Amino acid sequence: MVNTTLYLHIMLEHLDAYYVNLFSTLIYNQSGIHFSKNNRSILENRLRERLKTLKLDDIRTYYDIIIKDPEEMKVLLDSVTTNLTRFFRNKGHFQTLEHFVIPNMVAYKRERGANHIKVWSAGCASGEEPYSIAMVLKEHLPLHFTAEIIASDLSLTSLLIAREGFYNEARVSDVPLAYLRKYFEKKPDGYKIIDSLKNMIRFDYHNLKSESGLKNIDILFCRNVIIYFDETAQKSLINRFWETMAGFSYLILGHSESLFGMNTPFEFVKTDWSCIYKKNKASKDR
Ligand SMILES: C[S@@+](CC[C@H](N)C(=O)[O-])C[C@H]1O[C@@H](n2cnc3c(N)ncnc32)[C@H](O)[C@@H]1O
Fold first, then answer.
1. Which of 144, 93, 149 is nearest to 121 (CA)?
2. Which residue has a Cα nearest atom 26 of ligand 1?
3. Model confidence over 246-259: pLDDT tens digits?
4. Which of 53, 161, 168, 236 could lock 190 by a disulfide, CB 3.0 to 4.6 Å apart?
């Protein structure tokens, strides 16, 4: 009798390069995620895993399936994403949020008789980022101010964790103790986000390649996401962000990401804690 696992293993050892390229283009067109020659092996490994799970021995058959099945496309996209995240990742961004963004935004809103702040965590992975933002807002927004956070990702598995809001001991190690006590419920095997914090956040499936339909975002976090895109996809996303954001608003990218050389109307802002971007429609209209 043929050992199916061994057979599949041998068949999948060498994936047809032509089809790997087709998958790479497909993934790029669908999500902006770019596989260069250097990280092509990641794509090949994820394709092998998917073929094994589906018990397929031929990458061509898988290609025929995926171009007709949007649900399978979602599964593949999920599998090629890197969902690494942490609570209060890049602490400087949260210090900037607390000491610079919130005070400026509050002053701006007050002048206009407004008291609501709309935040978008784009590429929120398993929720640590939007929950960290929510904790800082809860602590530092003045009374009578309200906030809503939209948190989105295209990884369905990450969104499940985010919506559940349950994290084991190791994953909450970066949460300040006072916040851990206040915003988490201790469970036998980990920590659960309390409902009042969770209720500030709406978790949505959203692919950043398409229009979000969001408007008037005051603070946009999109950290460690565009690093996986090529320049063209980055530019198009940043242009869409501009349209999505309110006239006076802040954009926070990842520590190693920047708009340098992109010729965008965003203003570069260096605070004592980190570098961020500002949209100021009043001073820079396009
Ligand atoms: C490395 S994680 C960053 C998580 C969090 N922002 C942080 O900095 O800790 C990148 C996230 O971006 C998401 N992502 C990548 N491409 C995306 C796209 N086209 N649309 C939506 N999310 C995307 C991935 O699924 C992943 O969860």
1. 149
2. 83
3. 999 999 999 999 99
4. 168
Q: CA dist 223 to 120, 125, 220, 239, 276, Å? A: 11, 10, 9, 16, 11
Pocket test for ligand 1, best of 31, 132, 154 (most atoms within 8 A of CB): 154
Give the distance, in angstroms, between the CA of residue 210 and the centroid of all CA atoms in the same chain: 14
> How far apart, in whole angstroms, are the C-alpha atoms of residue 93 and residue 97?
6
Mutate to test the pocket of ligand 1, among 27, 75, 81 (most ligand atoms within 8 A of CB): 81
pLDDT of residue 15: 83
**pLDDT value of position 43:** 94
The pLDDT of residue 4 is 62
Q: What is the DSSP string of 127-157?
A: THHHHHHHHHHHHHSPTT-EEEEEEEES-HH
Question: In what helix (H) or strand (E) does residue 268 lie, and over which residues does it extend?
Answer: strand 267-270
Phi, psi of 282 (to 5 degrees): -65, -40
> Ligand 1 center to residue 181 CA distance, Å?
28
Residues in contact with ligand 1 by the CB-under-6-Å rule are 31-33, 81-85, 89, 123-125, 129, 153-155, 158, 207-209, 223-225, 228, 254
Low-confidence residues in the chain, pLDDT < 70: 1-13, 283-286
Q: How far is CA 256 from CA 152, 177, 224, 249, 276, in A?
A: 21, 28, 8, 21, 12
pLDDT at 81: 95
Q: Are 253 and 226 in contact (CB under 8 A)?
A: yes
